[in-house]
Amino acid sequence: MDADHVEAGPVPAPVPEIRMYLLFPEHRRRPPAPDQRRQYRHYLAQQMGPMIHALMLMATLCYGAAAVASTLIHSSPIPLLLRLSLLLPLLLVAAAARKARRPRLLSGLALLCVLLLEIGINLNSAGRAPGQPWVIPGLLLPVASSVIWLERWDFAIAMALCALGPLPVLLFGAATSVHIVQYLVYMAIAISLSAVLRAFMARTLFEQFRLERQLREQANTDGLTGLLLRNRFLELARLALGAIHSQQKPVCMLYLDADHFKQLNDDHGHAAGDAALIALAATLRAQTRPGDLIGRIGGEEFALLLPGIDQLQAQQRGERLQLTIRTIQRPDGPLTVSIGIAECRDADEGLEALLARADQAMRKAKREGRDRIVCAAGG
C-alpha cells in the first residue's frame, strides 16, 4: 500500500489542476461570522466572569460604606436601614453572576447591578443641599464599569442608566440649572472616557481570542491540507458516534487512499504530491455536509464519518467523490482513489473497530485493482 496520509474541510467544487494548490489557503474552512461572534461572546463571558463578579462585590461593599458614611455628613429623610436594604439584592446579583455562564445572562446581571446602584445613589442623595458632591458616585460609575460590558448593546444600556439614573434627584431636588448643566457636561466626559476604555479593552480581548483560536486550529489541523489531524478526528468522531447511537440513526465510515501516490512522489517530486493532496482535500471538503467529519489519517489516507446515511447512500456518495476526484490532473494522469466503506450496525461497535473495518475494505479495493469501492461486511 502507498505510504502517507491526509484530512478534509469545505472549499469550491472540483479543482481542475493540481497547481491550484497555490490558491488553496484562500479556501480553508472558516467558521461563519455569526458562529465566530457566538464563540467570542462565550469566550468573553468565560474570561471576564470572575472580574465582573469581583467588581460587583466591590461595588456592594463601597455602596454600604458610602451609605453609612453619608449619615455622618448630612441628615437624610430616607432611613439608613432602607438605604442599606439594597445590599441584599446587590449580594444576590453578585452571587448569581458568579455562577452565570451564558453571556446574555451575565450582561443582564451586570445591568441589574448598575440599576440598583443608581437607585442607591438617588436614595443617598435625597435631602442634600445644592452644591454638595453627591454627584461624584454617579460620575464614577460609567468609568468603573466600562471594562465589564461584553457587547455594544449592554454598554449602551449601561451608559444610559448611568446618565439618566441621577436625574430624578437633580430634577426634583433643589438643584439649579447650573448644577444640571454641570452634571451633563461631567457625565458626557465620563461616558466618553468609558467608551475609549471599552474600545481598547474590546480590541485587546478580541486579538487575544483570535490568537488563541488560531493556535488551537493549528494544533488540531494538518498544515498542508487544513483538515483535522488523526487524533482530533478520532476525538470528534468518537463523540459524534455516541450521539448518533443515542438517536438510533445510521452512520458510515469512508476510508480513502490516493492510488499510486508513492510513484507520484518518486517520479515527480514531493511538491507534485503535496499539490495532489491539497486538491484532493479541497474536493472532499466541497462534497461534505455540515455534519460530516473529515480527517487526514496519515500520508495520503483520509477518513470521513457520515452520520445519518446507510451503506447504499454512502456508496453513492463514494461514487460521486470518485468521479469528481478524477477531474484532478496529476502530472502522470488523473488522480484516483480507492475507497472502503463500513456501516455501523451495532451500537456496541466502537470507533476504532468501525475505522478498522473501513480500512480493511479499502485495502481490499487496492488489491482488486484500485480506483474502486469496496463495502465491508456487517459489524
UniProtKB/TrEMBL annotation:
Keywords: Membrane, Transmembrane, Transmembrane helix. The chain crosses the membrane at residues 51-74, 80-98, 105-125, 131-150, 157-177, 183-206. SMART domains: GGDEF. InterPro entries: Diguanylate_Cyclase, GGDEF_dom, Nucleotide_cyclase, Rev_trsase/Diguanyl_cyclase. It catalyses: 2 GTP = 3',3'-c-di-GMP + 2 diphosphate. Residues 249-378 form the GGDEF domain. Its EC number is 2.7.7.65. The keyword 4Fe-4S does not apply. PANTHER family: DIGUANYLATE CYCLASE DGCM-RELATED, REGULATORY COMPONENTS OF SENSORY TRANSDUCTION SYSTEM. This is diguanylate cyclase. It comes from Rhodanobacter umsongensis.
